[in-house]
Amino acid sequence: MTMQWQSNGEPRFRSGLRSEFDDFLSQQGRRFDPENCLRIDFHCHDHNSDIPDELWGRILRLPETWLKTKKLVKVLKQNGSSVVTVTNHNNARSCWELQEKGEDVLVGCEFTCFFPEYDLFLHVLTYGFTREQEVILNQKRQNIYDFLRYAAQNDIPVIQPHPLYLYSRNDKIDLCLFEKLAVMFWRFEVLNGQRDLWQSVLTLNWVQSLTPERIRAYAKKHNLDPAEFGVDPDQPKVVTGGSDDHTGIFAGLCGSQLYVPDLQERLKTESASTLALEALRKGNIAPFGTVGENQKLNIALLDYFSQVATKLKDPGLLRILLHRGSAWDKMGCFVLANLFLEMQKHKKTMKFFSFIHDALQGKKPQRFLKWQASKDYKFCITQLEKIADSRRNHPERFVDTVNDSIGELFNHLNLLIAKRFRKALEKHEGASLKDFSTEELTRKLEIPSQLTALFLGDGKRQDNMSNLNLAEALDSLSFPVLISTVLAGSTLASTRVLYQNRDLLNRFARELGRNEHSKRALYLTDTLLDKNGVSTSLSGKLKEIKRTDMPIDFLICHPEAEPEPHLHVVKPIADIDLHPFGEQTLQVPDVMEIARIFYEGGYDRIVCSTEGPMALVALFLQQMFNVPSYFFMHTDWIDFITHTTNLNQHERDRVRRLMRALYSRFDGVFVLNREHRDWLTGYEMQLPQEKIFLTAHHTAPRDLRVQPVRKADLIPGANENTPVLFIACRLSREKGIFDLPEIVREARLSVPGLKIVVAGSGPASADLQRAMPDAVFVGWQTREQLASLYLGLDLFVFPSRFDTFGNVLLEALTHGMPALAYNCKGPKDIIEHEVSGYLVEDTNTMAEAIVRHFQDPAARKTMADNARKRAARFQAEPIMRQFLADLGLDYPEQLRAEVTVA
């Protein structure tokens, strides 16, 4: 899978950021003579960071890390640190312990300070204080102004780490906060090994924009005196770097060079920590290393989750219930605790988590383990060996190796899950999935409130999942399911952590006037290449996107398709045969691969147009990247089950509630007709009106090279005056096609020579041919063949009450063929009654409209002209312009110019 570039030659968003930050680091590397520089990682943690800032960690009684001080110091020195510091949260215990052992250490701590007017907690890296001063600093941190004033009075240097990563209950941080920070801090961390490139570049450009005049203006605006905080506006801001490591994997790989003139001579009489503190106070600092992006944080969280799985103790139900936090926080902690505690019952799973932790630290699994492992799990051991080998022998490739292996593991485990799930279904007594109708599956789509019935089975009840022994099914699935859940969870959490402040980052970039995130949508669908009306409309949309180079790319999951401009293709990792429910094979996509494409492609919003696996992927990406997601509604599933099943109202309501739960998770829903819009915003679905966008499919221009079909070539004995009806659609019961025999039979009473041509295929094709033996069935037709039929036949008849739009109606009108349909959603938004076609209520009035149409030749010609005029109202440009506007995307500038000239 190769990433596409914008057609105008501009690099993708992240490529530009990378180039900008690499230039900065290169310049910083040339600032000082390396012989007179100390190396320090200003920001790292060990096991004494035992009370996390994150609410969930406190509820579950988890430390931020279990890393021993000795191991951290060893890694720091191995990675080139000539000065050691440990910046645990709100305590310097590790530094004092090292001093007591005779180690030279720069005393440090990351204090969590409260910003009262913003309801905000801000981290402040602080160095060179005494034990007595630590006590006072912990008292002062309840108010950041008092804290910073005390530090300045006592010449205690401070650094503001990751300025754009905030701990706040305030979703709408006033950007005046950063004006105050500019006045209150002299040193800023612009390189944090666990934060992403976008935050780092934004921070860098903001810090470099802080001129003396601007700082003084901010000080006056907010009535602050820079001198009280040890800040001289005339001195350029100082930038630093640190790894923010919690695992001992990346400690020392990011940090700062401290310039000390005549360093080697001074080291003979002074300690390295004393000289480091001097350089820090003077601001003689240059950051070094690489930004983490989400890949490093993903590795750190995977290591952390692996240790949580083996070390978590039951936090207690009362603790969870009575701890501060929202109901969702408590429910999430309850579920998470139960997940990890359940894992601890499975020795195989626990061993594997231990192996993951060891591999990330560079320790290979024991050789005999691979021999002992079953065939299904040898692959997992191989991936762990790759990770450990890279950590020890190829550290420059470690991050890429781990993330590649995580993807490979995830895919392998999901294939194993699918294989074992099928096996469990085969062993399950009773009917298999293929034996159930849509109706029966819907009825069984319920979880019993008696949980023992779910987990242990209940032979009595058959109307829901009670007769499935879930515990037995999970027994064979527990290892791959739990491991893949943690792999996916660490990937989601690592990126979510970085982008939980996305709205703030966007507002900050706009205020800064640079580095604003690219505005691009990734459109997920699994019906682009199907043979139906939805695929036709999606293909038309993709063609228009390509033509005008709109900021939207499609992504499909398909085993054979190849990528094109504006089209990504991922291969399925599994498929589900749905032929009993609509001649479909459901492709299960690789969510990790899609997440990578989304990240590297610089996308910042999602569109999804199918309720299957892609909808779940869309919601996964929504949570992972904290981006808006939109759903494009092509199908009315309530109408579908109403017309194709015998489900009662209660059972249909069950489906409706599931749909409401799904659609409500999206930030917007696109609908194709007014009736659907009103339904979604009405009592049954209760979606906010501002979230529903009315759109339409656009018509493709008529291909003037296509000639009309000759009726005589199609229908034996026909001539050009023979009245011929035409229908093109998927031949399935919900399309209303079994109304056609009665309609044609009744119309023939007045129009004896009436013929009908049927194009399309589907599950009801054979039944319809038996019901209409004198009809001409031409099967599935290409776009050109359909155009020829539209041009050569007389009247399009469409008896469906199911379609949300009706692309075939628009295609017919485009070619001058009037259309006849029921007066229902979709058709009534397209056809103008008795102008470009007919809207009727039932089979009788449909037959009457056919008769009237063929009895008035003059009216037929006028209606054909009106059909073409009506189709012209559905041009691509205005529809796609509004579609982009509703998505919050910009219409291509070159297209605006073309429209203006026209």
Automatic annotation (TrEMBL):
Domain Glycosyl transferase family residue range list: 717-870
Cross-referenced Pfam families: Glycos_transf_1
InterPro entries according to UniProt: Glyco_trans_1, Glycosyltransferase_grp1, Pol/histidinol_Pase-like
Record key words, sorted: Transferase
GO molecular function annotations of the record: glycosyltransferase activity
Protein name (database record): Glycosyltransferase
The species this protein was found in: Marinobacter confluentis
